[in-house]
Design brief:
The complex is a heterodimer of chains A (254) and B (200).
Chain A: E1 17-20, E2 30-32, H1 33-52, H2 62-82, H3 90-107, H4 119-141, H5 159-204, H6 207-212, H7 214-250
Chain B: H1 6-15, H2 23-29, H3 32-36, H4 48-181, H5 187-199
Classes of the chains: A mainly alpha (254), B mainly alpha (200).
GO molecular function (chain A): proton-transporting ATP synthase activity, rotational mechanism
Membrane topology (chain A): Multi-pass membrane protein
InterPro entries (chain A): ATP_synth_F0_asu (IPR000568), ATP_synth_F0_asu_AS (IPR023011), ATP_synth_F0_asu_bact/mt (IPR045083), F0_ATP_A_sf (IPR035908)
């Protein structure tokens, strides 16, 4: 526990209530900084995409290229993992990708709150994916969807074990999906804060400390670059895994 | 996730790392909002309902805005461009085929014109040659006729001239003899002498 002074690497994850909404049904509700950032992300994404495509030009400008690029990138990911049939989930995958990407990127802005550094948020997104898979799988294929857990070509005596393993692997998907994103964002931001804290501590200790602070400064610069990479990569990983899981709903049976 | 619910659970969780000896006493007194400050925020279950509520609203809004407005808009732009490019390629293909057909027709016309020109040239040359031949032949025939006539005339003239020469020679001889010796020889003797001279 940091002693309430300058360096508290956990402080950046603090949920701050902006407007209290009372406790309906004994549940505490409030409009928080997290909520403000969520709506900020939605607004940013929407206004960027509509502003970038305002000209609807045949030969795209820079912003329009960016908007088209994001569209085609996600579209090709969906097609590659889940086939053309998967395109019915394209708006969902695109929304997930762009939400996570923007949340991660916005989180890189100093003093900004990182929405995806909270487990409840990533868990909710992962649950959304897995519930979509389960509900669509049963609606589309009925009980045939359960073939997902019964790998073909396995000897009968092994089948019970295989089914158990398949069920466990299926159930662990939302957990790994949410934890991966949450842990990446959390750890990266803490690491950056800790190394930045070293700089402050060392420079505060005098002239020798100024030279000593050079090393953590390099670390912070390198970590910042790495974090940008991780921010983009985790959004992509989230989208790709979503596509792969949706492919199971579209085509159960191995 | 497995964080126990309720304020009592929170206090136990906080007290166990051994932060402050008086922690439990203090935190019972302060309101829950204060207690959040010392907890690890991502595992603070008190913030979960709010976060979930706003996430659901925000993400639903994002999904609707994307699926209803932004994505169809980009899709339209991409589709229009795709159609336009396909159209242009088709148009270019058509024009290319047209120009190829035109080039072929031109080549064909050129070849037929060349053949025709060649034919005309050959025909003309043949006609002219035949005409020249005919004219030459008729001219030759004409000339032959004239030559033959001329030869006949020459022969006649020559014969006539030869006849005249004998007469003149006989007269001249008798006149010369008369002048030399004063007597006129018999015409029979002179003629005989002249014939002998002409033959010799």
């Amino acid at each position: 526990m940091a002693s309430g002074s300058v360096i508290d690497p956990i402080h950046q994850f603090q949920i701050i209530k902006i407007v209290e909404l009372g406790q309906p049904g004994g549940v505490e509700l409030a409009f928080t900084n997290s909520a403000a950032f969520m709506f900020g992300i939605v607004a940013l994404v929407f206004f960027f995409l509509t502003f970038a495509t305002r000209g609807r030009t045949l030969v795209p400008g820079r912003l329009q290229s960016l908007a088209e690029l994001s569209y085609e990138f996600v579209a090709s990911t969906v097609r590659g993992s889940a086939g053309n049939e998967g395109m019915k989930f394209f708006p969902l995958v695109f929304s997930l990708f762009i939400f996570v990407l923007t949340a991660n990127m916005v989180g890189m802005i100093p003093y900004a709150f990182t929405v995806t550094s909270h487990l409840i948020v990533t868990a909710a997104l992962a649950l959304l994916v897995i519930l979509t898979v389960i509900i669509y799988g049963f609606v589309r294929h009925g009980t045939h969807f359960l073939h997902l857990f019964v790998p073909s070509g396995v000897p009968a005596f092994l089948l019970p074990f295989m089914v158990v393993i398949e069920v466990i692997s299926f159930l662990s998907r939302p957990i790994s999906l949410s934890l991966r994103l949450f842990a990446n964002m959390l750890a990266g931001h803490i690491a950056m804060k800790v190394f930045a804290g070293f700089i402050v501590m060392m420079t505060a200790s005098g002239v020798v400390g100024w030279f000593g602070a050079v090393l953590p400064l390099f670390m912070v610069v390198a970590l910042t670059a790495l974090e940008f990479l991780v921010a983009a990569l985790q959004a992509y990983v989230f989208a790709v895994l979503t596509c792969i899981y949706l492919n199971d709903a579209l085509h159960p049976g191995h | 996730m497995s964080e126990p619910h309720g304020p009592a659970g929170i206090i136990v969780a906080q007290a166990s790392p051994g932060s402050l000896p008086a922690a439990s006493g203090v935190e019972i007194a302060v309101p829950a909002a204060e207690a959040h400050g010392s907890n690890f925020p991502p595992f603070d279950v008190h913030t979960f309902p709010s976060q979930l509520l706003w996430l659901v609203i925000a993400f639903a809004a994002l999904y609707l805005l994307m699926s209803r407005v932004a994505l169809p808009r980009i899709a339209t732009i991409l589709e229009e461009r795709h159609d336009r490019i396909a159209d242009d390629i088709e148009e270019a293909g058509k024009l290319k085929a047209e120009s190829e057909a035109a080039a072929e027709a031109y080549e064909k016309a050129l070849a037929s014109a060349r053949t025709k020109a060649h034919g005309i040239a050959t025909e003309t040359r043949d006609t002219l040659a035949a005409e020249a031949e005919t004219r030459r032949k008729s001219l030759e025939a004409d000339l032959n006729v004239k030559l033959a006539a001329a030869e006949v005339q020459i022969a006649a003239t020559k014969t006539a001239a030869m006849a005249n020469v004998r007469g003149i020679a006989v007269e001249a001889a008798s006149a010369i003899v008369n002048t030399l010796i004063g007597t006129t020889p018999t015409s029979g003797a002179v003629e005989e002498a002249v014939d002998t001279a002409i033959k010799g």
